[in-house]
Write a structure and sequence with these properties.
It is built from five helices and five strands; from the N terminus they run H-H-H-H-H-E-E-E-E-E. With about 140 residues, the chain is of the alpha+beta class.
Length: about 140
C-alpha cells in the first residue's frame, strides 16, 4: 500500500492505510493532527489521509518541507519515495507502477518525495536532493 500511495498517488491506498491503522479516516486524521502538533506545525490541519481538497484540510509549503524532512528520516519511507518503478499484484495480475516525481532518476541526487494535484492547490511537488552529504528539500507549485 505504501508503494501505491507514495509512488503513484493512490488515494485509495491512503484510505485503506488509515482504516487499517486507526479504524476510520477521521480517527487517522486525529493521529495526523497529533503528529503535526508534535512536529510544531502550526499551519497544518488534516481531515483526510490523502490530501485531496476538503474544508478544514490545509498546510503551507514550509510545513510540507518540515513533514518531508521528518519522514525522510524513516528508512522505509525514504526507500519507497526513492523508488522509480515498482511491480504490484492486483487481483493476481502484475502491474508496473511508476513514480510521478519526474526528477527522480533524471536529476543527480534527487532521492524522492511526493507529487500532488488538487484543483485548489494546482500541481505540486515536494522533492529532496542530496549532494556531497548535503540534503535540501524543495517545494514547487505550478499554477
Amino acid at each position: 500500500l505504501l508503494h501505491g500511495l507514495m509512488i503513484c498517488s493512490g488515494n485509495d491506498a491512503a484510505v485503506q492505510i488509515a482504516i487499517s491503522i486507526s479504524g476510520s479516516v477521521s480517527n487517522f486524521a486525529e493521529l495526523m493532527n497529533k503528529k503535526a502538533l508534535e512536529l510544531g506545525l502550526e499551519h497544518t490541519h488534516f481531515v483526510t489521509p490523502h490530501g485531496l481538497d476538503e474544508n478544514g484540510h490545509y498546510t503551507t509549503a514550509l510545513e510540507l518541507a518540515k513533514m518531508a524532512d521528518y519522514a525522510l528520516k524513516i528508512p522505509k519511507f525514504a526507500q519507497v519515495v526513492n523508488t522509480k518503478e515498482y511491480n504490484v499484484n492486483i487481483n493476481g495480475e502484475q502491474k508496473r507502477i511508476s513514480n510521478t516525481n519526474e526528477l527522480l532518476g533524471y536529476l543527480e541526487g534527487v532521492n524522492g518525495c511526493k507529487t500532488g494535484y488538487t484543483s485548489k492547490a494546482g500541481r505540486c511537488l515536494v522533492t529532496s536532493a542530496n549532494r556531497n552529504d548535503f540534503n535540501i528539500i524543495i517545494n514547487f507549485f505550478f499554477i
